[in-house]
Amino acid sequence: MDFWQRYRAIDARDTRFDGQFYTAVRTTGIYCRPSCPARTPKSGNVTFYETSAAAHDAGYRACKRCLPEAVPGTPAWNVRSDIAGRAMRLINDGVINRDGVEGLAARLGYSSRQLNRILSHELGAGPLSLARAGRAQTARTLLVSTAMKAADIAFAAGFSSVRQFNETIGEVFAMTPSALRATARPHRTSGPAAQSTTALALNLPYREPFDPGIFGFLAVRAIPGIEEGSFTSYARTLRLAHGDARFRVDYDAGSPGRPLVLTIGAVDLRDLPPLLSRVRRLLDLDSDPVAIDGALASDPRLSTSVAATPGMRMPGAVDPQELLVRAMIGQQITVAAARTALTQLSAAGSESLVPAEGLHRLFPTAEQIAGHGFDLLRGPQRRIESVRAAAAAMASGGLDFGYGDDVPALESKLLPLAGVGPWTVGYVAMRVIGAPDVFLANDAAVRNGIRSLARPTNGAAAAPDTLSPDFRELSPWRSYATMHLWRAAAAAQAAARKPSPAEAQPPPPAPPQAPTKTPVQAPPQTPKKAIR
Description:
The chain is an alpha+beta fold. The protein contains 23 helices and eleven strands. It has helices at about 5-10, 50-55, 75-80, 85-90, 95-110, 110-125, 125-145, 150-155, 160-175, 175-180, 215-220, 270-280, 290-295, 305-310, 320-330, 335-345, 365-375, 380-395, 405-415, 420-430, 445-455, 480-495, 500-505, and strands at about 20-25, 30, 45-50, 60, 200-205, 225-230, 235-240, 245-250, 260-265, 350-355, 360. α19 packs across α20 (about 420-430).
């Protein structure tokens, strides 16, 4: 977007652009979200920034009226596969808090000086400023949503000291932490003060519309003991840098604002920022559904599906290594068969340190799969050996991949593995790094979905033959087209299993038979087996 496109967006107070850029006003010294209800400033006084960190570095403070930190993140970090996008995914996952700028630069293959120069040029702020802005956003969320002590919030958000926490809150928001907390509505504050491990309840912001079908996608693939889900909720255990955690997300379509509520049952507070980031990635909450649906609806093969399910999301992954194992086991078999195999494999995992009803295990680590998975997996021997070899490579550190990769990097790392092909790499790219332009042409469900959507319904005309079979016209949103095709294939399969109305009705009673003149006892007959 150029300057005037952005200016028209803030003049219209368009909420779609909240989090995608920030508006700084020189005469007031503040920066706002695009939908800020304040009077539109004169164009000559406006500067637009890609990130809130860039506005901080330029000397602006956050608007107290529109709270620009309380918005969904920018979808650009998934769309962009350049160094800036990869760096932002890793920063959001807490890499700087754990490994510092040097660790971030090493993951990306640059020196810290080169990385600082690239990010400053592309985003207007260096890696430390970007991480600082993320800490301020996490701290604000905890201050207005929980009753945690300020000292606990400081360390949970990633600050190294309470003094640094106080200074940052004052510089960014021009308020003390206690004053910022006072801006919260009473019903948004949770119960007792938190300790080092605690239960928290937070609202997750997202852009409308939101299709809750992503919960169904996760539910049918949930591994008992590790995950559980329904059409409006999802819960699981997972391992993080400082310990294991448990969370649950609930969607209430009938409540005002239709909130997504994240309840964290247990977590080491040092792991809270990456947990929040991974949950948002899992549910694709930073995407721009209006832009995506607008592109997909232009294809006559998908227009009906998009109209019926606006705001479809692409499920992410909370653990890249786990996702690779699940992809390798699940390729070329049904979802139900993959779930059975993964349930057997889960016995290699350890019992969770945060036991709760229904959730008592952690997904096996790469070391556990390499050591014991051979005895637990079922199926072709070649596939079992491939899974164990991949697990051994991840356990030894020879195979290192994650949120900071792009599609070519994943291909170079994963394709040399036995049992890994283009489908596996594409599926991992969709779910781990949120790659938006993956089309799984050889996927059986994709082909079934294409056939299902190609059938004209309600008098609609068939899609023209001039459209490309790989949906290239929809680039860069073909991953979302894949989600629609999967949904269509599942719906067609369910419809095929459903009995017709005639079959669903019980058979009519047999007409009465006239009695014979001489009743004769019929010999006993062997009962026939019921036909299903």
